[in-house]
Specification:
This protein is α/β, with parallel strands linked by helices. The protein is built from 7 helices and 7 strands. It has a 7-stranded parallel beta sheet with strand order 3-2-1-4-5-6-7, with helices on both faces. Helix 4 links the parallel strand 4 and strand 5. The longest helix is centred in the middle third of the chain and has 28 residues. The protein is globular, with a radius of gyration of 17 Å.
Length: about 250
């Protein structure tokens, strides 16, 4: 029996490297899953892999910039597993263009907020009442170090991730009495969307690695433990918190 045995989890952003690694880890710990990303076909190999572990898994295509998709996802996920105990929020926004507060196009700010903040909030407004009526559950958001430590050129993305942290705190405050715990993981200098060596070369060139106590780039696997902890009953008295997985940035 794993640490998530009997849990039913909705994994958003499961088509990405971090989301897919999280899905495998949740399944290995005993959770049944609903996987979602923009294109369901992209999830087929991952779903087959998880079924081979003996876990139940369903896939639902949803674009977090489309409200109708989010509403459909909330209903489909609940019906697929007969309820949801854990929501892992790692929606994949469109790749942000580099830009400052003055020159970044307005549509980029709106697009990043829709995917990172408004989409997850809409999803949880649909799921939270059902989860509270069923006894509660756990929500894990995925923040970014850019939401706390600004990096030049990432204003649209960083503002959205910072807003997601505030949303995390509000959800924790307002839904705690209903049994829903809401916590965040905050990866930083983690190669969640590309080759580890290439990512390390990039951050070394920017000087960011010099501000990291461990002096190296992290891997997706190093984010999993914190998420499993928050999803499990081990963290039953923890809510509104965030864990920085960033090698000790200073």
């Amino acid at each position: 029996m794993g640490r998530l045995a009997g849990k039913r989890a909705l994994m958003t952003g499961a088509g990405g490297l971090l989301g897919s690694d999280m899905a495998r880890a949740f399944a290995e710990e005993g959770a049944d899953l609903v996987l979602t990303t923009r294109t369901a076909a992209k999830l087929a190999p991952l779903a087959d892999e998880i079924r081979a572990m003996g876990r139940r898994v369903e896939t639902v295509a949803a674009d977090f910039t489309v409200n109708a998709d989010i509403d459909r996802l909330a209903h489909a996920a609940w019906e697929a597993l007969g309820g949801i105990d854990v929501v892992f929020l790692s929606s994949q926004p469109p790749q942000p263009r580099l830009g400052t507060l003055l020159d970044c196009p307005e549509e980029d700010f709106l697009q990043q907020h829709q995917s990172i903040v408004w989409g997850p909030l809409r999803l949880m407004r649909a799921l939270a009442p059902r989860m509270m009526a069923a006894g509660g559950g756990s929500v894990i958001t995925t923040i970014s170090s850019t939401g706390f430590d600004p990096i030049a050129g990432y204003s649209a993305y960083g503002l959205a991730k910072g807003s997601l942290w505030v949303l995390t705190r509000y959800m924790a405050l307002e839904w705690g009495r209903g049994g829903i715990r809401v916590n965040a993981i905050a990866p930083g200098l983690v190669a969640t969307a590309g080759n580890l060596a290439e990512h390390e070369a990039m951050v070394r060139a920017t000087g960011m690695l010099d501000r990291t106590a461990l002096g190296r780039v992290g891997a997706n696997a190093e984010c999993i433990g914190a998420a499993i902890h928050f999803a499990s009953d081990e963290s039953s008295f923890t809510t509104g918190q965030r864990v920085h997985i960033d090698g000790g940035r200073f």
